[in-house]
Specification:
Elements lengths: L18 E3 L2 E3 L5 E5 L14 H17 L6 E5 L2 H8 L5 H4 L4 H8 L2 H10 L1 E4 L13 H8 L4 E7 L15 E7 L9 E2 L4 H12 L13 E2 L5 H18 L3 E6 L8 H16 L3 E3 H7 L9 E7 H10 L6 E4 L1 H14 L7 E5 L4 E5 L16 H13 L3 H23 L10 H4 L13 H12 L1
Parallel strand pairs: 3-4, 3-5, 5-15, 7-13, 10-12, 10-13, 11-12
Antiparallel strand pairs: 1-2, 6-7, 6-14, 8-9, 14-15
Helix pairs in contact: 1-13, 1-14, 1-16, 8-9, 11-12, 13-14, 14-16
Length: 458
């Protein structure tokens, strides 16, 4: 692939492009990573660092510690959201946005420069981005997923000692959710109530035998496509992850008791895929009870399934029974935030959108504009997403340094807080205010929190 030319970006002069050949990566020791710092708390403002900048500092420290300068991340700043709009189209007023076409809105918030850079380099880390205010272009995140076929949203969630969690079983949470990213209701195939297109769809469904008892003439219509090809590739990634990490199970989460030909099919295709491609490494839950007396054989990944509504109960009552979950798009959206809530909220929820040829690692929370430029927000989600990037590069030593240092920083502050009020805590306001006798004013700055993590990296 020929290196792109840009309108406003300047191609990086340091670092080496990671090469993907037929879905297989070859990572250099200095890979170029596209960095979308984000809006709100993600952005640097008047010399005050945002959460993306402080997260990058921690990641660089971990790589240096782990490899002594032999490896290095080469950051390439690219732009999306308000930052892109201010740079590329500063003259467009808010009241004009809704009058623009969907493509014009896309270019306003996600310029061609950024798309060309990510297509060429294939690796990215992203802070939180502003949702466009117009009605046509739905989402920067959704566009990136479809444009680059980032079909797997990977959301690992674990409990960190020292973080106040609302569920008494939170310390048992250590699971990774694989959410299918490119199908389901997120395809945006919708027809507005009363529109000519909706009326045509209703008329067609009438011909198919669906009467007004199940479909009103006035209904808005949404289409929910789920295919075997896209379901199986997601489930394959989830099973391979469980095998590589030596995890005990993969659970197919679905609502197949009601939606038999979409979510029910997702479950069926999952079992088919597991038996066809991993037969010597997996065992189904039915086989465990039928052939092995209820105890899974050593070294085998158990493939099981759960109805989605039951799953929301299971993650609270028996989280230790679920290590990897594979699920369609909408279920995964709900479920990943719910699991994150068990352990203290999405402020620490790492995320990645991964395809066969590109991967974007991202914070899953919003821009929190009231904290913009104040150096107060928790950088944990961006930082832990960066740790996922390090794992993706197979820089496991550096990723482990980050995760352990984060946990040490939380545990240290918990111990200090429990010794009584009025002490110096090393965590940001959102964590500090959870301790008895402490308020959000007792929290450390984003930068100070990052520096303490770097201290524990050593």
């Amino acid at each position: 692939m020929t290196a792109p030319t840009y309108d406003k970006l300047i191609a990086p002069t340091a670092g080496t492009r990671a090469v993907n050949q037929n879905g297989t990566w070859k990572f250099p020791d200095d890979p170029i990573v596209c960095m979308l710092r984000g809006d709100g708390i993600g952005a640097d403002v008047n010399g005050v660092p945002g959460i993306s900048a402080v997260a990058m500092k921690v990641l660089d420290a971990a790589v240096t510690k782990a490899y002594g300068g032999k490896k290095k991340l080469a950051w390439f700043d690219v732009h999306a959201g308000d930052a892109a709009r201010n740079l590329y189209k500063p003259d467009v007023k808010d009241e004009q946005v809704a009058t623009l076409s969907e493509e014009e809105q896309r270019k306003l918030y996600l310029p061609d420069d950024t798309l060309k850079a990510f297509e060429y380099y294939g690796l990215g880390l992203k802070g939180p981005l502003t949702t466009p205010i117009g009605g046509g272009f739905r989402s920067i995140n959704v566009f990136l997923r479809f444009k680059f076929d980032l079909y797997s949203c990977v959301r690992p969630v674990r409990y960190y000692k020292g973080v106040d969690a609302p569920n008494r079983n939170a310390n048992k949470v250590d699971m990774c959710i694989f959410r299918e990213n490119t199908e389901d209701v997120y395809c945006g195939i919708e027809f507005k109530s009363g529109s000519d297109r909706a009326k045509k769809v209703v008329a067609f469904l009438r011909e198919m035998g669906y009467g007004p008892d199940v479909l009103m003439d006035s209904a808005g219509i949404g289409i929910k496509p789920i295919s075997p090809e896209r379901s199986k590739r997601l489930i394959k990634m989830a099973i391979q992850f469980a095998i590589d990490k030596k995890l005990p199970s993969v659970t197919l989460c679905h609502k197949g008791n009601i939606m038999k030909f979409t979510e029910g099919a997702f479950k069926d295709w999952g079992y088919e895929l597991a038996k066809a491609e991993f037969r010597d490494k997996i065992v189904t839950e039915d086989e465990v009870y039928k052939d092995f007396g209820g105890k899974a054989p050593a070294g085998k990944v158990v493939i099981k399934d759960r109805i989605a509504d039951s799953m929301f109960q299971q993650i609270q009552l028996r989280p230790e029974d679920y290590s990897v979950i594979a699920t369609p798009n909408l279920n995964g959206d709900y479920l990943s935030d719910a699991v994150a809530a068990l352990t203290g909220g999405i402020g620490l929820a790492a995320g990645a959108n991964i395809g066969d040829r590109a991967a974007m690692f991202e914070a899953t929370h919003g821009t929190a504009p009231k904290y913009t430029g104040k150096n107060l927000a928790n950088p944990g989600a961006v930082l832990l997403s960066g740790a996922l990037l390090l794992e993706y590069l197979q820089w496991f030593e550096a990723a482990e340094l980050v995760n352990k240092a984060v946990e040490k920083t939380f545990a240290e502050s918990e111990e200090i807080a429990h010794s009584g009020p009025g002490k110096k805590l090393h965590v940001t306001y959102d964590i500090a205010r959870q301790f008895p006798g402490y308020t959000d004013k007792d929290g450390a700055t984003s930068s100070a929190f990052a520096e303490r993590i770097i201290h524990h990296i050593g």
